[in-house]
Specification:
Elements lengths: L1 H14 L4 E3 L21 H10 L6 H18 L9 E3 L41 H21 L8 H15 L8 H15 L3 E2 L1 H21 L7 H28 L9 E9 L14 E2 L9 E7 L4 E7 L10 H9 L6
Parallel strand pairs: 3-4
Antiparallel strand pairs: 1-2, 4-5, 6-7
Helix pairs in contact: 6-7, 6-8, 7-8
Length: 345
């Protein structure tokens, strides 16, 4: 809970346009109702952890040096010296819990197209630490095995040429030297919107507003194109259009989940006026009242939202999660299926 409170406080300050820093050179300073820092006054969990690691030194930088000197060295490699300066911090999205729908061989619904790593929708909201890396490695191995045993070198290219031609034509229409839409500014706008409304703090009304803005932006891009001055702008322009499109998909899923009454789960907090108070001193920037969150609706753990673009708009569908298999074949028949390649079909 304490780390989550820090996340909220840092996020709120960032939304005000302020920068936040961690100062390892000093202990917290008392004042305004906060007593002078004493390490023995820490909560038992934190104090016991420091004792267990032998990190009871006087200053934060000394405790960090004792516990994890490589962390200090890594920042030094990036020209940040924690012995002389504070470290700027922010709340940043780290993982993509979702992704493309895949089968058990990591093949998408586009034949001969495989998706592995965090782009694959195999990462659960409450996955154990390390399973993201494991999923990427297992996915790559299984995809390679399937390709080698099923497709071999029989890769279909019959439809490639007309599809590539259509894509090139669409991209050429996207580039417009007379447009007032600058790709870099578009990307910054999308990043701000997703951080504010699609990140770790969510509210239905705000998410709906963000979705409408994202749809409006994408429509504007399609109508006016993106300004390109030289070849270097081409990649940025394509990225801007892709991000504008993807942001609609993400926000659509966020809105649908909130409408279904999902509540707070995984790494995001859903705000609600009739929810549970977080801390009396932490205010909702929209209302000025103490921040309240909606608990998780655990019934929704049994389904996932699958989102699909039908050519005009995104559509959402609730899909039951696949149950873990209970039937186990005896070794000999399972080995026969493997040798005869039946496991791939």
């Amino acid at each position: 809970l304490q780390s989550s409170l820090v996340d909220i406080l840092v996020f709120n300050e960032n939304q005000k346009g302020r920068r936040v820093f961690m100062d390892f050179l000093h202990n917290p300073i008392g004042g305004n109702g906060i007593s002078e820092f004493k390490i023995e006054d820490l909560e038992p969990e934190a104090l016991n952890y420091l004792k267990a690691t032998g990190a009871m030194q006087k200053l934060p930088i000394e405790r960090l040096e004792h516990m994890n000197r490589p962390a200090i060295d890594i920042y030094k490699e990036h020209d940040i010296d924690l012995y002389t300066e504070p470290l700027e911090i922010s709340v940043c999205s780290q993982h993509n819990n979702g992704g493309f729908a895949i089968d058990k061989w990591w093949q998408s619904n586009i034949k001969q197209t495989f998706v592995i790593g965090e782009m694959a929708g195999s990462h659960g909201v409450k996955r154990p630490g390390g399973s993201a890396l494991n999923a990427g490695q297992a996915g790559a191995s299984r995809a390679a095995e399937y390709i080698a045993n099923v497709y071999e070198n029989k890769i279909s290219t019959a439809d490639d040429e007309p599809q590539v031609k259509n894509i090139i034509e669409r991209i050429e229409k996207l580039f417009n030297s007379d447009s007032d839409l600058l790709p870099a500014k578009i990307i910054s706008e999308i990043q701000r919107r997703m951080t504010t409304f699609g990140g770790h703090i969510r509210k239905l009304a705000n998410a709906e507003k963000a979705l409408a803005e994202a749809q409006e932006l994408y429509a504007k891009i399609q109508a006016k194109g993106l300004k390109v001055k030289n070849a270097d702008d081409y990649i940025t322009a394509i990225q801007a259009e892709h991000l504008a499109f993807a942001s609609i998909a993400y926000l659509k899923a966020v809105v649908e989940l909130l409408k279904a009454g999902s509540g707070s789960r995984g790494s995001h907090l859903v705000l609600s006026d009739d929810g549970i108070g977080i801390h009396s001193d932490i205010k909702d920037p929209d209302t000025g009242k103490p921040l309240k969150f909606k608990p998780e609706n655990i019934d929704l753990r049994n389904s996932i939202i699958r989102i699909k673009f039908n050519g005009n708009q995104f559509e959402c569908q609730n899909v039951p999660v696949r149950a873990a298999p209970k039937d186990r074949k005896a070794f000999e028949p399972a080995w026969t299926d493997f040798r005869e390649g039946k496991i791939y079909y």
